Amino acid sequence: MSTTEIIAELPKLSAHERRRILDRLLELDDEAEMIEERRLCADEAYQMLDALEAEDAQTSPSLGEMLLRHAGKAVGLPEDLAAQHDHYLHGTPKR
Fold first, then answer.
1. pLDDT tens for each residue of 68-79
2. Which of 3, 28, 33, 77 has its CA 20 to 30 A from that of 44?
3. Domain-wise residue ranges, the chain
Protein backbone atom coordinates (compact mmCIF):
# COMPACT_ATOMS: atom_id res chain seq x y z
CA MET A 1 0.00 0.00 0.00
CA SER A 2 1.37 3.39 -0.96
CA THR A 3 1.59 6.50 1.21
CA THR A 4 -1.08 8.17 -0.90
CA GLU A 5 -3.46 5.26 -0.37
CA ILE A 6 -2.89 5.28 3.38
CA ILE A 7 -3.49 9.03 3.62
CA ALA A 8 -6.68 8.69 1.55
CA GLU A 9 -8.01 6.09 4.01
CA LEU A 10 -7.32 8.11 7.19
CA PRO A 11 -10.54 10.18 7.10
CA LYS A 12 -12.53 6.93 7.07
CA LEU A 13 -11.09 5.91 10.45
CA SER A 14 -12.62 6.71 13.81
CA ALA A 15 -10.94 9.14 16.19
CA HIS A 16 -9.89 6.19 18.34
CA GLU A 17 -8.29 4.40 15.36
CA ARG A 18 -6.47 7.56 14.27
CA ARG A 19 -5.21 8.01 17.85
CA ARG A 20 -3.87 4.43 17.84
CA ILE A 21 -2.08 5.13 14.54
CA LEU A 22 -0.62 8.34 15.93
CA ASP A 23 0.55 6.54 19.09
CA ARG A 24 2.24 3.87 16.99
CA LEU A 25 3.94 6.47 14.77
CA LEU A 26 5.27 8.21 17.87
CA GLU A 27 6.53 4.88 19.21
CA LEU A 28 8.33 4.24 15.92
CA ASP A 29 9.90 7.71 16.08
CA ASP A 30 11.05 7.05 19.66
CA GLU A 31 12.54 3.69 18.63
CA ALA A 32 14.33 5.32 15.69
CA GLU A 33 15.76 8.02 17.97
CA MET A 34 16.90 5.40 20.49
CA ILE A 35 18.56 3.37 17.73
CA GLU A 36 20.30 6.48 16.41
CA GLU A 37 21.52 7.41 19.91
CA ARG A 38 22.90 3.89 20.42
CA ARG A 39 24.59 3.99 17.01
CA LEU A 40 26.25 7.31 17.90
CA CYS A 41 27.41 5.90 21.26
CA ALA A 42 28.82 2.84 19.50
CA ASP A 43 30.61 5.06 16.96
CA GLU A 44 32.18 7.07 19.80
CA ALA A 45 33.27 3.86 21.55
CA TYR A 46 34.83 2.52 18.33
CA GLN A 47 36.67 5.80 17.77
CA MET A 48 38.01 5.67 21.32
CA LEU A 49 39.16 2.06 20.85
CA ASP A 50 40.81 2.95 17.54
CA ALA A 51 42.67 5.81 19.25
CA LEU A 52 43.79 3.53 22.09
CA GLU A 53 44.99 0.88 19.63
CA ALA A 54 46.90 3.49 17.64
CA GLU A 55 48.51 4.76 20.85
CA ASP A 56 49.44 1.20 21.86
CA ALA A 57 50.94 0.56 18.44
CA GLN A 58 53.22 3.56 18.88
CA THR A 59 54.33 2.71 22.41
CA SER A 60 54.31 -1.10 22.50
CA PRO A 61 56.78 -3.28 20.63
CA SER A 62 55.29 -5.53 17.96
CA LEU A 63 55.25 -9.31 18.35
CA GLY A 64 58.03 -9.56 15.80
CA GLU A 65 60.18 -7.12 17.78
CA MET A 66 59.61 -9.08 20.97
CA LEU A 67 60.57 -12.35 19.28
CA LEU A 68 63.70 -10.83 17.72
CA ARG A 69 64.97 -10.04 21.21
CA HIS A 70 65.35 -13.80 21.73
CA ALA A 71 66.73 -14.67 18.30
CA GLY A 72 70.08 -16.40 18.39
CA LYS A 73 70.16 -16.79 22.17
CA ALA A 74 69.50 -20.55 22.40
CA VAL A 75 72.54 -22.54 23.54
CA GLY A 76 73.40 -26.22 23.36
CA LEU A 77 71.33 -26.99 20.26
CA PRO A 78 72.56 -28.96 17.22
CA GLU A 79 73.95 -26.78 14.44
CA ASP A 80 71.62 -28.40 11.89
CA LEU A 81 68.46 -27.97 13.96
CA ALA A 82 66.76 -25.66 11.44
CA ALA A 83 67.45 -27.98 8.51
CA GLN A 84 66.73 -31.21 10.40
CA HIS A 85 63.94 -30.14 12.75
CA ASP A 86 61.73 -33.09 11.68
CA HIS A 87 64.48 -35.45 12.78
CA TYR A 88 64.90 -33.79 16.18
CA LEU A 89 61.19 -33.23 16.85
CA HIS A 90 59.61 -36.37 15.36
CA GLY A 91 62.49 -38.84 14.94
CA THR A 92 62.34 -39.01 11.14
CA PRO A 93 65.55 -39.91 9.33
CA LYS A 94 67.91 -37.02 8.60
CA ARG A 95 67.86 -35.74 5.03
1. 988 888 888 888
2. 28
3. 3-73
Torsion angle of alpha carbons 6, 8, 11, 12, nearest 10°?
-80
Read off φ and ψ for residue 23, nearest 5 degrees: -60, -40
Report field, pTM of the whole predicted structure over 0.85: no
C-alpha atoms less than 13 angstroms from C-alpha of 14 in its C-beta half-sphere: 3
Distance of CA 26 to the CA centre of its chain: 32
Report the C-alpha gap between 85 and 95 in whole angstroms: 10
Nearest to 25 by CA among 53, 3, 50, 47: 3
C-alpha to C-alpha distance for 17 and 47, rounded to whole angstroms:
45
